[in-house]
Amino acid sequence: MAILEVNGLKVYFHTRNGVVKAVDDVSFSVDRGETLAIVGESGSGKSVTCYSLLDLLPKPPARIEGGTALFDGKDLLACSASEMRQHRCNDIAVIFQDPMTSLNPFLTIGEQLIEPLIYHPDRSQIQTRVEAKRTAVALLDEVGIIDSHARFDCYPHEFSGGMRQRVMIAMALITEPKLLICDEPTTALDVTIQAQILRLIKKLQETRNVAVIFISHDLGVVAGIADKVLVMCDGTIRETGGTDDLFYRTQNEYTKKLLAAIPEGAKTLPNRAKSDEILIEVTHLKTYFRNQLNTNNSEENRYIKAVDDVSLEIARGEILGLVGESGSGKSTLGRSILQLAPTTEGSVKFSGQTLTGLTAKQLVPWRRKMQMIFQDPYASLNPRMTVFETLSEPLLYHGIATWTTIASQVKQLMDDVGLSQAQLRKYPHEFSGGQRQRIAIGRAIATKPEFIIADEPVSALDVTIQAQILDLILELVERHNLTMMFISHDLSVVRYISDRVVIMNRGVIVEQGDTETLWAAPKEAYTKELLAAIPLADPAAERKRIANI
Amino acid sequence: MADAIEDHGTSLWKDAWIKLSKNRLALFGLAVLIMLIATSLLTPLIAPYGYETQNLNMGATAPSLQHWLGTDIFGRDMLTRIMYGGRVSLMVGFIATAVALVIGILWGAIAGFFGGRLDAIMMRIVDVLYALPFMIFIILLMVVFGRNILLLFLAIGAVEWLTMARIVRSQVMALRNQEFVEAANSLGLSQWTIIRRHIIPNTLGPVIVYTTLTIPSVMLLEAFLSFLGLGIQPPESSWGLLINYGVETMEEFPWLLIFPGIALSLTLFALNFLGDGLRDALDPRTSKD
């Protein structure tokens, strides 16, 4: 029997620039004990669909224009505010994307966990603190928090990201809901943690027989846990079906496009001129930061060793993938090589010239030869500069262009990165994420650099856009004979783009080698663990993988 | 596609001007301000009477054809006095605020951008100046340098830039770690270029709002100082001073309060409209139409 049945749901946003049909005629149902995955790119309406069921949307601008959502036979869209509070408290729970911001930093996790029990809207169900704590501690045990009794009184900052997400899951389950909505619960987590959380959600669902709606942008993530998949785009349903049917036998063009965009295997570039010349040479590089939180200044703890004695070489024309989880020091290593972060010890050489120890002024001519592409295309462009200004700045500053040639050179750059010249006068906010990343890439290649560090350049983008940007990067590397260090937490992306891979953990290099060799035969335990954690876009294989974690 | 020359011209300031010129309220504010400033500049030429010309027979008369805005208790023409007062008030308002703006933005931007020890030292200086009692500071200045209108501007500016520096510093500290600043660093731009091109334009929103609030408060501060005998002295006048005297005789001769009050309010309205318009115009995220 279906616990939730949504029929013809329509949610429109009434903005100053007209009506946006965020959700347009969406129908689906979820049974008890079933997992429905809603997959779509950003702006597809997948989150809005779920939030509208719980009345969590900002109104205005959002307005529900039609449809019904029968939960246990009662229409959620028609119920009053106090009835809705009952539902939220008893029946439906949500796990949000970012465990770092969805817990209140000023309350202990215990206090937050028992909140719905001791302040229950239905007075007869209010529990005493002691009872509530007993329930909460048992639940913390169940979601895998070790030493749950002591951890009950800890504050959120004392937990890691993965542990916080476990706490969030416990918080969602404490009222024993019948329906659990997970909004990208693993997107902000590292791959190894993601695998654990997926397994936990699957296990809890089976033991408690709850219905789960799992929202994700990543088909790979849902392959192993979903029973049914709903593919959304632009507010409408593109396809709905059983997981196996959808992955193996889809007829839908959009689903095919999504599946094709998942980076798989390695792409070989036939025309790449690989040489033996070493362009970048890093020797015993150390970057330490002063540990400000630490109160007892023992010699051991005084510094955070973000990069600890790293040595590596990058040959001219090579794409080196640098992989690591958050906090592994991969970004700091990138910034240290470019002399954007102050290094503590060791040296960085750029085609024979030592860069470490040069003053800012001495570095200027070298800056032209090495550039960086950043992760967040929303933060890496100055919001008050037009595209023209952004792209012309490096050209003019390094004397590559003059006022008479600048316009044609900037237009050339726009062509290079696949943007229309007519958009030169626009500001960054007028572009989509993918287009912004193209502008950022244009800025990086403007000075005709020899070496580019790309720091997670595609992780903030949708899968289909991600594939386009990766291809653009490959094309530019080939055309301009660039050398690149590609930093990412996403192993599939790194495999797709890199010739050689370096794996980092806690500031040191764990393993390095040619991409395919390393994939085929990883030596270190950590590498094996990382590779095993990659979600597969193949339901049968993925189910097996999750069961084995 | 526009030709090359036109491409060069596109910048925040040019776009801002285009947007501002479409904002009627802001244009109205700008027009009022220009009119007020022009009147002040031309006052010695166009004022109907001399600012100290007394006519004791005409003491405190209500507005008439002869004296459009009436006369004060010494029979001096109010219109003339408001015009002359505007010269002082507007000058104090704009110059003292400009001083506060320049010092405050630079000080705050440098402290916030470089951080660390430099920031600590610069902000402690701000704290020390904050802690200094304002009145004693002014009286000291007067005692040492004698009473002087320029000194008054300086003294007020020297107090007002402190808050501006703090506002700018907090903005800059949030901007400093943004990726576009790091991108500018990796392009090899000099620190000064980064502050000028990437940091300061992004702090303008709050700065403009605070500026439009500072100008009126500076004008009132001048009135307060003058009232205590530390600013300008009769027979010279300023709007603040006129209002202060007007309050004393509000019940018998209301026009002595109303007209300088209207002049001050008009300026404030105009400033607010212009300030809001500027803030919107300088934010590219607000739509162009």
Which class of secondary structure composition applies to the elements of chain A?
Answer: alpha/beta
> Biggest protein-protein interface?
A-B, 47 and 32 residues
CATH architecture type of the domain at 317-342 and 355-548 in chain A? 3-Layer(aba) Sandwich
Number of strands of chain A: 20
- Full CATH superfamily name of chain B: MetI-like
Q: State the major sheet of chain A.
A: 6 strands, mixed
Distance between the termini of chain A: 31 Å
Q: How much β-strand is present in the residues of chain B?
A: under 5%
Shape of chain B: globular
Strand segment count of chain B: 0
Strand content of chain A: 25-35%
Average pLDDT metric of chain A:
84
Number of domain modules of chain B: 1
Q: End-to-end span of chain B in angstroms?
A: 21 Å
The global form of chain A is globular
- What is the H/E order of chain B? HHHHHHHHHHH
Number of helices of chain B: 11
Low-confidence stretches of chain A: none
- CATH top level label of chain B: Mainly Alpha
Helix and strand content put the structural class of chain B at mainly alpha
Description:
Chain A has 549 residues and is of the alpha/beta class. Among the domains of chain A are: 99-176, no CATH class; 317-342 and 355-548, P-loop containing nucleotide triphosphate hydrolases (Rossmann fold). Chain A has helices spanning 46-53, 81-90, 109-118, 129-142, 148-151, 161-173, 191-208, 219-223, 243-249, 253-261, 330-337, 360-367, 387-397, 406-416, 433-445, 463-480, 491-497, 515-520, 525-532, 539-548, and strands spanning 2-15, 18-31, 35-40, 62-71, 74-75, 92-95, 179-183, 211-216, 228-233, 236-242, 278-290, 303-315, 319-323, 345-350, 353-354, 370-373, 451-455, 483-488, 500-505, 508-514. Chain A has a six-stranded mixed sheet with strand order 6-7-8-3-9-10, sandwiched between helices. Chain A starts with a strand and ends with a helix. Chain B has one domain (36-49, 60-281): Orthogonal Bundle (MetI-like fold). Chain B has eleven helices and no strands. Chain B has helices at 4-9, 12-21, 24-46, 78-114, 116-131, 134-145, 149-176, 179-186, 191-227, 239-248, 255-281. In chain B, helix 4 (78-114) packs parallel to helix 7 (149-176) and helix 5 (116-131) runs antiparallel to helix 7. The interface between A and B is large, with 47 and 32 residues.
